[in-house]
Amino acid sequence: MSVYNKYSDELLLDFLKEDNHQAYTVIFNRYCKLLTNHAYKILQSQDDANDIVQEVFVAIWNKRYELNIKGSLASYLFRATKNRILNHIAHEKVVSRYAESLLGFIENNYTFADANQREEELRLIIAKEIECLPDKMREVFVLRKVNHLSYDEIADQLNISDKTAKQQVYNALKKIRAKINPFLIVVIFKLYFFD
């Protein structure tokens, strides 16, 4: 048993300031387990508790020349451990918030980009199907759905009845829906099973 074990904390600190490794070892052995148990109770992680206590003792060694401890060494060590625990918890919360934020951004941005891509694909399919409509049907459909004319206005402009205009639009929508329904089924399938 080392004679240093019998020394008071104050005397050990004096030796520590003179680069005495034995004094440091005795301080470490005297308080390490107590501080680790204290940190573990708060953090519920043995690894984190061990890391924090190691950091406290490394800091004590690194600052041994400037150490000016008012009060007991035990109080100083518990306070230093508590501060490192609080810093650790704050850091973990920041990292967690950042990760959640980044994940949310990636998911939302991907979903937004993916939705825009699907919308563009659908728009192109609809435009292609409008182009494939018979001339008169396409003309009526464009006047109604693109130019937003009423059926009466279309009838006057094309010299047809409003019922004919309505029928042409109905037939055009039926043809377009028949072509885009398979596309929509694929989109819905992708949304629910692959995203």
Structure overview:
By secondary structure, the chain is mainly α. It has 2 domains: 3-96, Rna Polymerase Sigma Factor, Chain: A; 133-193, Arc Repressor Mutant, subunit A (Orthogonal Bundle), CATH 1.10.10. The protein is built from 7 helices and no strands. α1 crosses α2, α2 packs across α4 and α3 crosses α4 (73-132). This is RNA polymerase sigma-70 factor.
Which CATH architecture of the largest domain would you pick? Answer: Orthogonal Bundle
In which range does the helix fraction lie? over 70%
**Beta strand count:** 0
Question: What is the helix tally?
Answer: 7
Q: Could you spell the SSE succession in H and E letters?
A: HHHHHHH
The CATH homologous superfamily name of the largest domain equals: RNA polymerase sigma factor, region 2, helix turn helix motif
How many domains is the backbone divided into? 2
- Head-to-tail CA distance between termini: 66 Å
Structural class call reads mainly alpha
CATH topology of the largest domain: Rna Polymerase Sigma Factor, Chain: A
The level-1 CATH class of the largest domain: Mainly Alpha
Strand content: under 5%
Uncertain segments of ≥5 residues (pLDDT<50)?
Answer: 187-195
Largest sheet: none
